[in-house]
Amino acid sequence: MKEQIWIAAAPGVWRTTVGNPGKPTPLSWIGASPRLEAMERLPQGEPPFELGEMRLFDAGSRGRGCIVSFPLGETEKLYGTGLQFMRMNQRGRTRYLRVNSDPKQDTGESHAPVPFYVSDRGYGVLVDSSAIVTMHLGSTMRRGDAARDRVRDRNADSGWKATLVSPRAEIQLPPEGADIYVFAGPTLEAVVRRYNLFCGGGALPPKWGLGFWHRVPKLFDADEAFEEALEFRKRDFPCDVIGLEPGWHSKSYPVTYEWDGKRFPDPRRFVERMSENGFRVNLWEHPYVSPDSELYAALEPLSGSHTVWGGIAPDYTLPEAAEAYKEQHDRRHAAIGVSGYKLDECDGSELTNNAWMFPAHAEFPSGLDGERMRQLYGLLFQKMTGDLFRSRNRRTYGLVRASNAGASPMPYVLYSDLYDHRQFIRALCNASFSGLLWTPEVRKARNAEDWVRRMQTVCFSPLAMLNAWGDGTKPWSYPEAEPIVRHYIKLRMRLLPYLYTAFAAYREDGVPPFRAMPFVVGPEQTAQAEAKLAGDESEILNTTDAAYGKRTGKQWDDQYMVGEALLVAPLFEGETERDVLLPPGVWYGFETGSRYEGGRVVRVRTGLEHIPVFVRDGAVIPTIPALPSVPAAGETTPLTFVHFGEADGECRLYDDDGETFDYEAGRCGWWTARVTRKPDGGYAGELTGPDGAAFSYREAGWTFARTKLPAEAE
Ligand code: GAL
Hints:
The protein is an alpha+beta fold. The protein contains 13 helices and 34 strands. The chain is globular, with a radius of gyration of 25 Å. The protein binds beta-D-galactopyranose. Beta-D-galactopyranose is lined by residues 218, 245-246, 284, 344-345, 416, 467, 469. Beta-D-galactopyranose (GAL) binds at residues 218, 245-246, 284, 344-345, 416, 467, 469.
């Protein structure tokens, strides 16, 4: 065992280097520059163990990497490890953190596996590596660590468990070693904020990115796409972004990145017409370049040894390759007003009927192998396209299918349709622990009820999108459900200032805009809340799962916070009621007005017309009218503050031009909207903020002591 040297990498962050890790790593590629001032403002804490307690076991022979291990507490829960679909508490599991589009089993593989876990005891551990990292999060037991009295007899003991509570997390590093970071708390939320800020702060999308998105069928031409967009206006459905699927390329699978001359004879005019009607255009692409692409000749010598679908896989860690890609994308897309990309299939799959990806042993000119390139590929595209729009001083917001550590500042949202509605929501929750964003996009549904439930959820997510590329669905596909779907898309538009402020807090303070319950309810509070549930049989949260027999405790991975004041608890097809874990305090049904005492589990019942959403007593929510699309920079929009319940309250409100990076030069501001009770029993509202800062709203009104959101016409 060797003594490791730890250095302070930033306030509350320590780093040690094991072996000789090369570059690029996820963090080095992103160019993460820690937001030190914001990190200093966080509450300061120490991990619950000495850094020297990290054990390092020698790599040994057989080319396997070093093992490092950290101590674990008896009941400690571990969250994170990226975009996980099968569970929230990863304690007791082995996480094989490989990028994979088809994580059919609970192995840890995912579109976005992030070797970062955060503990409910208030610390986090990150391994920054371009290779696959395996984290045994209390799933291994060394001889001598297993207490004799814990060993049980499965023949006779119904309490037998496959995984004994292990006192250590063991992490297998790649053979070259890696940088390891420990993040301090003191709370779980402080750890995640520190991680996000260390990576550069969260992404701030352009305002239009928070409107509604619709992707048209894969072979639609310019006229069809335009007509489909106008249908939103005719039917009074807000929409901001139209996504084009493979048919805009002159060839696809592999792709050219060039407009198809027949379907899109005049791309510039197409984008212009869309823009005149308040729509942005987003383009689908994947990484594998067709021999018929104008980029092929330049990229071919800069590509890996293996092809995918007959296309080359360029090595974009080489500056010449990245420059060629950016120059072409800028000229053909960004220069004519395209707003961003959907970066598909950069994750890879081994499924036999539709396998794609270069093998792990592929060789790339930079020296990276196929394993490392696959782990990094999604990040390479996020960074290149992000930089491309930045060079035009325009923000982008898009979709990506693969990611890794350090992605917090990347303006990209993960997606895939391989999951059921529950897994979609669990992924939304889990994404919040690892600096990721996820959309539970809607494609199709089993019936109108399923359709409505999915649409309601997606309207309370980082990116509200209908992805009709394969099914040709529209928000109004189920006529009986059309009014409900319209209502929720409009509700999202009304909440734009609230959502945008939540993202600004992500950027400036590292607070995820969508947060899983462990951010706001500690383990003891959760246990107490559950205990109050009369007649409930659910077990108190387990630290490990039993492989046989016993069901595991509820993890509350089917509800989440949106910003500071709203809690969303989706309902699923076939359900009309559910349990909701409410944090302490008084809460109201956001659209029903029912009053709830928090700090307990409550049972809610509602018809299809509502998704259960709760608002804190005293909350102040900034709203705008449900416009057809998000106002452009320079437009002024009436703003109404809605105050809920009885308590005094306040909210912060962030604003800037919503489209450029001028906010980095200070052209932005934070306002405070404060509601206080007057001696006569009425309420007064006051908006304060910096003089002269960009403000795109007109203070239109205040409404006080509401128990539910007023209908728009009021
Ligand atoms: C899939 C993707 C879909 C759609 C399709 C186009 O990989 O998940 O959303 O873009 O490719 O071929």
